[in-house]
Specification:
The protein folds into 2 domains: 2-72 and 267-356, Luciferase, Domain 3 (Luciferase, domain 3); 109-254, Rossmann fold. It has 10 helices and 15 strands. The longest helix has 22 residues, at 16-37. Helix 2 (16-37) crosses helix 3 (39-47). The radius of gyration is 20 Å and the shape is globular. 31% of the residues lie in helices and 24% in strands. It starts with a helix and ends with a helix. By secondary structure, it is an alpha/beta fold.
Length: 358
Amino acid sequence: MNCMDRFFENVFHLEKAKKQEYLLDELNKAILWHYNHCQEYKKMLDTLGKKGGHYHSLEDLPMLPVQLFKMIDLVSVPRENVIKILTSSGTTSQQVSRIFLDRVTSSLQTKALISIVGSYIGSHRHPMIILDTKSVLTNRSSFNARGAGILGFSNFGRDHLYLLDEQYNIQWSQLEAFLEKHKGEKILLFGFTFMIWRYVYQVCKKMDKKLDLTNSVLIHGGGWKKLLDQQVDNVTFNRSLREQLGIQSVHNYYGMVEQIGSIFMECEEGFFHAPSFSDVIIRDPKTLQVLPFGEEGLIQVLSVLPKSYPGNILLTEDLGTVYGEDNCKCGRKGKIFLIKGRLPAAELRGCSDVYSYQ
């Protein structure tokens, strides 16, 4: 814990060599911990002929496909130490991931989130509008991805207004009162991409109602697949919100419930950044070989944060491209990358296929 606290002070300061050394040491320790404390994880590594704590490069670390968390419960602490269970978003017909957090992991993820977002918006807590409904937070011991995101990001604001009622209608009178109360102040906005588009932007567009949120900053993420299906990319999204709602400053973020806290924020240059305690590797979707910068492939995410479950090294179902490391014009260190979208379902490999290449 103490050795990690210094990384929360400046989460984008480590250059490549020092970062790789730090991550490799911490992730080897994490693998050994989970190997010794999670029976299911131990069985998987034994089956692969792999054991914990003896890897010499980040590329060689044993990764888990995120689909596994939809199939089995993976826990590395006694069940009585679990204080929160997070689930991925999905319909009732879909399997969802179940992520088990103890106090140590929950605290680390909160510190990480505060450090990452604080480096973009500062430490001052602004009046905050959450572009969602409060009903998503009904159960404080079990959250889906939306609820966990709202709870985590709400720490950055004050005097919170939930813009939507339980039927997802905009609460116009509350919004007008809030904007009048905080006239002249910077306002923090948070929401999930598709929710903002469908229940805020499209409603305002249909009503021909423009909002004056010029003095605000929006943080958003998730739900891009539905928007890309509607031919709405990041540029279109930002332009539309600027024209209809007046929002000038927008930061998209990439993250997942299986590694919550280790988010990748979009900088002023339009790239996602890997902080000091996280990293990304791009792999060929068919062979899982590591791809060089500039080539598109499956995104692998690494994080030192998970202690209560073996979610440190995950192969996602998302496609992306790394464009460089320690070279962004915004001044932040770490790899910079962009997301292309989700690998088509027909191309998603089963867990046994994924592991046959490791």
